[in-house]
Structure formats: C-alpha cells, structure tokens
Amino acid sequence: xxxxxxxxxxxxxxxxxxxxxxxxxEAALVEHYPxxxxxxxxxxxxxxxxxxxxxxxxxxxxxxxxxxxxxxxxIPAQSAGRDGDPGYxxxxxxxxxxxxxxxxxxxxxxxxxxxQLPPPxxxxxxxxxxxxxxGADELALDQRLSALSGAGRAAYVLRGLEKLPDGDVREVxxxxxxxxxxxxxxxxxxxxxxxxxxxxxEFDPCSLQARPTDLMRRRQHMKAALxxxxxxxxCGALLGLPGDGWGPDGxxxxxxxxxxxxxxxxxPATLTRVAPAAWESATRADFSVWPARGELTGDTALLRRAxxxxxxxxxxxxxxxxxxxxSGGPAGPPQLLYAGVVDTARVVILHDGLRVxxxxxxxxxxxxxxxxxxxxxxxxxxxxxxxxLGRADGNVRYLTAPWVTKAAERDLTKPGSGAMDLxxxxxxxxxxxxxxxRTGACASWNVLQLTDASGTRVLTDLGExxxxxxxxxxxxxxxxxxxxRALRVWAPFACSLSAVRAAGVRSVNTWEFAAQPLPxxxxxxxxxxxxxxxxxxxxxxxxxxxxxxxxxxxxVAAKAENVPACGPRDPHVLAGVLWKSGAGSWYLLAAGxxxxxxxxxxxxxxxxxxxxxxxxxxxxxxxxxxxxxxxxGRAVDGLG
Length: 640
Fold this sequence. Notes:
The protein is of the alpha+beta class.
C-alpha cells in the first residue's frame, strides 16, 4: 500500500484545553513507559529492521517530553487520556507524531528529520536486540501490519492497544498530523481485529533477546581499518619484494568463498532422512532414529529456504534459542524430522545431533520467518519423545517420537480428573492447552502424557521447543510422574513450574522429603523439594515448598540456583518457613531430609531439635537462619 502523507500538526486551542506541566508529563511517561514504547514499535516502519525499531522506539519515547524546564512550565494538552490523565495523552500524541514522521520518505526533504535518523541514544554496540518470538498468529499479524502505511498501523494500534473508539482514533490521528484519516481507518479495517495479540511478547520492545552482530563483518572492518592506517608505511616495502609471496591467511580461501562442505549443508538433497522403521531395531531411542514426517517433506524449495535462513538469518527473521544453545548454521547436512503445515504456517524441523531447529514461515506467502533453537544433546527416552510443532490460540501441538503409541492431556493440578486422549496423526497430536503462553493467575496446568512400550511419561510445555520431563521421588531413584501417588504429590506444586519457563529446562523432579505435624494439631504439612535440571548443566533451580492440609497450592519457603542440594550429587535439603496457626500464633517450622540428625535455628530465633523436624514459637517478621547436621556428621545450611 502507498504510504500516507502526514500533515503539519495543528496547535490545540489554549483557551479550552487543560494545561499540563513538565513534571506531570514526565510522571505519565515513566508510569506508562512500556506501553508507549510498544505503541512506537508497532507504528514504526518494519523496513527499519527489528533491532533498529527497538532502539528507535525507545529513543522516540524518551524524547517525547517538551524542551525547556522552568520553575512552572505549562504545556497545552489534548483531552484526558489513559485513566483520565491528560499528561499521558500529551506524551502519547508526541510519541505517535514522531513515529509517523519516522516512516515518511526522506526524499521529501533536503535533510532527514531527526526521527528518521538512527537513534543517538540509546545505543548498543556489538549486539542486536529484538523482542522474543511469538507464535504463528503473532507472525501473521506482524506481516499484515507491515503491509499498511504508518497511519494505517497507527489507527489499528490505537483501536487495539489503546482501546479507543473510532471517533477518538480520528481525533488523535488528526492531532498527530495525518492528512487522510479516512484512508487510515479503511486500511486498519483490512486487518482482522485480533487486538489481544498486540499485548504479546512478540511486540514488547522492553522484553528483549540479544544476539551478536555480523562477527565476520566486524572482524573484516577492523582489519580494513588497521590496513588503511598502515598502508603508507607498508606499501613501499611490498613494492620492493620479488614475487607474490603468501597472504596473511596463508593458503586459506577468501572469507566468503564457497566452501564445498558448507554448501553441502545447505543443499536439501543432502538432508539425512531416516527410514520409517529404523527405530524398531536401533539400540538408542533418540532423535537420530526419528523418520522424516509431514506432507511437505518433498518440497525442495521450502527445505532450501529453511536451510538458508538457518545459515544466514536476515533482519526480519525472529530468532530465539534456549539458554546455552548456539544459534549458528549447521556444520554438515542435518537430519529432517518434519516438514508440513501447522495451523497458519509451514514448518520445518531439523536435527544436527546437538540441536533441534524449527523454521516457520506464513503459509499465505507473506514475507518473514521464525527460527527457534533448542539444545538436545544426549537426549534419550522421555527427553526425545516430543517436539513442539507450533503454538496458536493458547494451544500447543507436538510431534511425537515414532515409538509413542498413545497421547493424552491432563490437568496436573487435578490428579483425580483423569486424562483426555489426544488424536495422533502420523505422530502429530491434536492441540492441547499450553500453560507456557497463559497469562494471569494459575488455576490449572495442562501436561502431555505419552505412552510407549516402556511405560507412561508426563511432559510439560515451558515455552521452548522440547517439553520438560516430569518425575517424582528421592534424587537418584526418581520415577515417572504418571502414577496416582506421583500425581497427588505434584498437584499442589504444579503452578510453581511457571518459575522455570524459558530457562532451558530438561527435567523437573519433585521430592516429598518430610511430613511435619503442625503445632496446633490441625494436621500434617508436606515439605517438597522441586529441582529443575537444564540442558546446559548450569542454571539449575531448586525450590523448597511447604503445603498445609487443605491448601490448594504449596508456598515457596526457599529457593536457590546452581546448588547441588536436592539433586543426585547431594540428596539432602534443609528449609524453614514462618507459619501462623489458626489461633494467631507464629512459629518457625523447619524440616530436613530423613537423614538429618539435628536442626538449630540462628539469628532472630533461638531453638534446636534432634531429628529432622523443628518447631519454635516466634513473632511475625522474625529473621532466622538454619543449621543442620546429618547422621554422617556433615553440616548443612538452610536452602537459599
């Protein structure tokens, strides 16, 4: 579509408009900064590239305050805006006005406008910043918005993000200098009104991922600068040398020469395709024996695009990777796991021995793509049982291992509700609710239950390509979380899994390490230790949780990262919590694993007990430390 002209803004009438001082405008900007930056990001032209759009959105928002500070400056404002705050309306108008100017062609002026230049501040060197990748719906909406003019995007965003009726949208656009408001509203009508997607992380320039810039190009630029500085001194000496001699890189090819091995890795014809029945005779149940599935495995053009984007993702590609996962190109021809249509996208899933890579592009042929990386080295059994195909409308679809015979969905918070069977079509599951994309309070936690010849396993979506495997039991002898008792243990603590979303988690084990009678004789409380192991080894997270009788959920009593406690290397834990009885009395309750010989409270609470349980009367807000001794004589500290 043609870009619309932005007319010079008209000054509001000072006689009827409220007055806003600088301090009020600044307070509104600080309070609503994330929303204002999101608005600027959505209105800015997509041609800037995602990284520059992020920085420009922040720069325009930070420049939205008026210049010149006096003891009592006043600024004419439009009608009261967000929550009746005219300061917000004023700042929003300035952000919108400059974002629209940034989209105007430079050729209309002798010199670009300030908003059309790269932002002077903030600046980030050596890194590209961009929002987290969303699902296929967000990608499709982004493509539809990119086809609109700046004024059309502004109309859509004011309707969806700001919840303004068309009459108010018209007033704001006119005040921002849009010449043809009717055309802008007509453009916005062409895009489906999926306004809830505008609040997703895909369009949040305040929650960012970082990737390095072109390292080879930076190195070449540095070499070129050094070579230019030394050219005068070296040139004469080189002219006096006989023959050509060796270059600085010896016999190496030029930096961008086409290497045969690298080219082979990008050729769809060289993709590894495993025979459908290979897993039946294999000694390992891992990704290396997955066959290629999906209706588009013969689409050479699609596979070529997927491999090319993997090797050289452009500015419009949304790249995400689990922590500790390299995002470089394949070292050799990867293995094809899947190629087919998933919801509104064409999806290709590849495996290179270390990583699973998911490529997705809109099936309607619009520009743009998403590239997701997940580390899966050493994955066998449950860890290699499923891969996420896509997420849409709060649901997730999986591609399951060829040895999976049955799939089901169950709510982990309701162990007695049973599992609901999911249809399996060539390894693809029907959609099931995903807790990873849910916002708001946690009232349920749906998980994937898979059955094969060796038993039944439970996995959960934590927002990454590979679901996490759930187990229960003492570290070193944990068992599957699919049994009735295991499900009862997990139920009060299922919602605590939200604490480890998008952390590269491989498995999560919950261990009920103690049961403690409550001092008021109201029953016995459960002490549970939850440990999340990661694919990269580091970044493990441990939670000690406390659950009283009749409570719907457990409470986190202590937490720690990168500690061996509650794991196979150190299957011990000690934690405490301040608890209020029904009569209003406060106690310090503490518990250790079963081989704890004694517990001592230090700091603001004094008390000790032999064995693995401690209950000491105390006051609200008391600060205490914990020391314990194991039966072996080894000392342990309280978790966290």
